[in-house]
Each structure stands twice: as C-alpha cells, then as structure tokens.
C-alpha cells in the first residue's frame, strides 16, 4: 500500500462530495432527467463509482442504528466531533454525507478517564449474512431481518418472502420451477440467480444470472401461486443485469405496466453490498479491530505504536475491506502507512 499523492486525494474528496450531492438529490426525489444525469456521472469515472459505493455502504449500515433508535444520538455526536481538532476531513462534502457516511466512525484519541470512569470497550461483533441450503441444493442468502417460508411441491419449488431481502441461487430443474412470492408479485426461475426485496413502498427484483419471469397477482398479497392477473402488463421477463421495481399495490399501480431497467455493474454491486461481512466496533481498541481485518480480509496489518493501538473506534465497517479501513485512518487521522516484509504497518504521524 502506498501513500496517495495530493492530487489523488483531492480527486477522491471531490468524488465523495459529488456523491453526497447526488444522494441528497435522490432522497429528495429526482426525475428521469436527473436520474439519467446521475447515470452519466456514475459511469464517467471509476472514482465516482467507488465513492458512490462507499456512501451507499454507510447508508445501508445506518439502518441498524436507526432501528435501534440511536441514530439521532450518533448524528449529534458527529456534529460535536466536527468542532474538535480531530474532526473528520471530508472535503467539501455536505451535511448529507456527514450523516450518511462519516457517522459510522467515531474515532477519538485515548484520553484520561473522566470522573465517570473510562468507557467500556466492547469486543468486535462480526455479522455474516444467513445462508440456507434448500432441499434441492438451491441457496438462499438472507439480509438482516429477512424471513422466508419454504414449501416444495411436486410441480414447483415455492418460497414466500415474508419480509426483508433475499438472494436466491437456484438449481436448474425445468420440470419444477422455482417460484418466489413477495407481496403481490410472483417471480419464477428455473436455474438462475436473483434477489427479491419486499419493502414498504415497492417490491424489487434484481437478476444477476439467467432470467426470471415476474407476474403481478390479481388478488394482491396473500394470493395462491397461480392466481395471476390476465392483463398483458401483469407479466414481464427480467434478464440478467436488470432491475424491476413494482410499487406497493394500489388502484393506480395495479393498472400500470411492469417496467424493467438495465443497471450498470457498479449499481448492481452496490445493491448487493449487504451480502458483505460487517464488523461492528463499540469503543473497541484499534488493536482488536486489526485482528478482525487480518482474519476476515486476510490482511497483514501491524500496529507498532502503543498509542495508536489503544485508539478506540465505534462504527460499522465492511470486514472484507481492510484497504478502505486503512485509507480512512490514513486520510483522516494522521496515520502513516509503511509496507515492510509483506506487512502493512500503521503508525501515528508525529
């Protein structure tokens, strides 16, 4: 690993800033023209795609603190830190990127215990997606909180997505289609790989291999498999590299055609980032975090500096991305990186 030069750092910070602006525009509700402009920006530079992926990772990670009811406290802590000497340097990024990305990393230099005592350090917690092998050797990967019900019948392999998101890698069997029911949508596959997400506003289908057919049921959620609408717009084929979002059923959405969108590889990768292992740190010393990255990412990180080794971190990180973790320490907290004998050594800049 080498230390990036100033021009590269500036370009990366600019990409992060632009990604933050695009996130703000997207969440405010963009139109087709704005979305097309975003696609051109995303494809225009590899730095853009990388910055967008990292921002989306943080946005995904924020779901957990939000569910736990601590997101407001985290954001307040971030704003307090921004007024200190060791604040996060995120270039000209807006408050959106601060809330969406930097909030995961509350890194502070070790300080003397306050009158209330030193904070309690928690051991790193590793999250891997749940992986199930079904009776026909098809594989299901479940996002955090997702639930499925499996019912294999003589003429089909039926799975109901109760909630959340799942990725299916289907064993081929033309005589026995693999059918996933999610809300008012039926997704059929023979041998393919695809994800289905059942959300409050839409049901989403993303195909990575092969193709699937998607049908909107005329009777809405809770219908029996096979009870399909007869209108032509109730059925569509979704090939590999494509995405289908079906709005939650209402009188207007039910009469609209199912629209399939082709996605760039970077966006497909981003949508499946939840499959990556995560490590959650809670006041955890850097030395313990390094052990996790060495194990999960097969990295060779070394911390020779006792002060740096005692640095406490809190946040959620990709456990398989040691390089990204090191870059963050390097660019934001004065950590010097040296490559020696196949090992990446971390030191504080004195």
Could you provide a short overview of the structure?
This protein is an alpha+beta fold.
Radius of gyration in whole Å, from Cα? 23 Å
Multimer state = single chain
Segments where pLDDT lies below 50 for 5+ residues? Answer: 63-117, 219-233
Helix content: 25-40%
In DSSP terms, counting alpha (H) and pi (I) runs of 4 or more, how many helices? 11
Profile the largest sheet.
12 strands, mixed
* Overall pLDDT metric: 76
Intertermini distance: 20 Å
Detailed description of the structure:
It is a single chain. The chain has 350 residues and is an alpha+beta fold. The chain has 2 domains: 6-125 and 278-348, no CATH class; 137-273, Sandwich (Jelly Rolls). 33% of the residues lie in helices and 31% in strands. The protein is built from 11 helices and 18 strands. The strands form 3 sheets. Strands 2, 3, 4, 5, 6, 7, 8, 9, 10, 11, 12 and 13 form a 12-stranded mixed beta sheet that branches. It has a 3-stranded antiparallel beta sheet with strand order 1-14-16. The longest helix is centred in the first third of the chain and has 24 residues, at 6-29. The radius of gyration is 23 Å and the shape is globular.
């Amino acid at each position: 690993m080498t230390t990036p030069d100033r021009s590269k750092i500036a370009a990366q910070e600019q990409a992060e800033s632009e990604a933050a602006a695009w996130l703000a525009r997207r969440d405010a509700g963009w139109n087709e023209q704005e979305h097309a402009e975003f696609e051109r920006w995303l494809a225009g530079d590899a730095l853009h795609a990388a910055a967008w992926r990292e921002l989306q990772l943080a946005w995904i990670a924020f779901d957990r603190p939000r569910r736990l009811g601590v997101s407001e406290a985290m954001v307040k802590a971030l704003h307090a830190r921004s007024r200190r000497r060791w604040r996060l340097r995120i270039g000209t990024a807006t408050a959106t990127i601060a809330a969406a990305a930097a909030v995961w990393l509350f890194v502070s230099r070790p300080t003397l215990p306050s009158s209330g005592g030193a904070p309690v350090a928690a051991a790193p917690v590793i999250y891997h997606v749940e992986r199930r092998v079904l009776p026909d050797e098809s594989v299901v990967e479940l996002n955090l909180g997702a639930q499925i019900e499996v019912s294999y019948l003589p003429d089909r392999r039926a799975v109901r997505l109760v909630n959340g998101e799942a990725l299916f890698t289907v064993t081929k069997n033309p005589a026995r289609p693999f059918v996933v029911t999610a809300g008012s949508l039926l997704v059929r596959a023979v041998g393919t790989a695809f994800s289905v997400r059942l959300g409050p506003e839409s049901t989403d289908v993303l195909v990575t291999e092969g193709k699937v057919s998607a049908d909107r049921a005329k009777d809405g959620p809770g219908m029996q498999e096979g009870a399909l609408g007869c209108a032509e717009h109730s059925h569509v084929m979704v090939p590999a590299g494509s995405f289908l979002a079906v709005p939650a059923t209402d009188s207007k959405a039910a009469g609209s055609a199912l629209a399939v969108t082709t996605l760039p590889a970077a966006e497909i990768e981003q949508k499946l980032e939840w499959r990556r292992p995560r490590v959650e740190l809670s006041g955890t010393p850097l030395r313990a975090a390094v052990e996790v990255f060495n194990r999960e990412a097969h990295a060779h990180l070394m911390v020779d500096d006792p002060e740096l080794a005692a640095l406490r971190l809190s946040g959620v990180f990709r456990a398989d991305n040691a390089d990204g973790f090191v870059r963050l320490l390097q660019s934001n907290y004065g950590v010097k990186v040296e490559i020696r004998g196949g090992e990446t050594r971390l030191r504080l800049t004195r």
